[in-house]
Amino acid sequence: MTIPKATLSSAMLWLVVLCLGCGQPTAPQPQPKFAPPPQPIAATPKAATPVSRPPLNPCVQVFLSDHKYGENNGCSTRFTVWNDGRPISASGLRCGQKGAVSQVNWTYNGTDDAGDHYTFTRVFPHKEPDATTTTKEIVLNREPVVVFEDDVQRVTIGPSIVDPENDTTE
User: Fold this and answer.
1) Positive or negative, the Cα torsion across 7, 12, 13, 18?
2) Rounded Cα distance, 77 and 139, in Å
C-alpha cells in the first residue's frame, strides 16, 4: 500500500502544528512615529565660558620645577593653543623624582578681555596610595603664572619663548 505524497505532506504539517502549537494571537502594538525625546542631563555648574577668539598667547610653555632638587631641575613642554584658526583643547605632563611624580593636565577654555583661561589638574604623587588631586583655574596674560607650588615642586605656565612657526628643535 502506498500513501500519496500530498497526504504525507499534510500529515507532516499537522504533526508540526500539534507539536509546536500555533501560539496565542497577539494584537498589534501601536508603534510610536518618533522616538521619545531624550531625558535632559543635569548640567554641572561651570564658570562662564570666555569669549571665543584667538588666544593672547598662541604658544605657551608649562614648566614643572623639582625645586627641592635644584631650581632648574624638572621638565617643560610647549603647547600650541591655536592651530589653523581652531583651539587645541588639552595636553599634559608627567614629571618628578621617584615617589614624587606629578601628573599635570590642562585644558584651554578660551580667551576674553582678562586673558587666556585654563583649567589645571595635578595628581601628586602620581600612582601612589596617598595621591591627591587638585584642580585650579587660572588666567594667563603676558607674564608667567605659578599654578601649583609646594615644598617639592612648582608648576608654572607662561608665554613660550620659542616661536612655534620657526622652531627647529626636536
Assistant:
1) positive
2) 19
Q: What single-letter amino acid sits at 88?
A: I
How far is residue 101 CA from its own chain's centroid? Answer: 22
How many of the other CB atoms lie within 10 Å of CB of 47? 9
Q: Rounded to an integer, what distance in angstroms lies between the CA atom of residue 65 and that of residue 67?
A: 5
Distance CA 123, CA 114 (A): 27
List the pLDDT tens digit at each of the 170 positions of the chain. Answer: 565 555 555 655 555 544 455 555 445 544 444 334 444 433 333 445 555 688 899 889 999 988 766 667 889 898 888 766 666 778 899 998 888 899 999 999 989 999 999 999 999 999 999 999 999 999 999 899 999 999 889 999 999 865 545 555 44
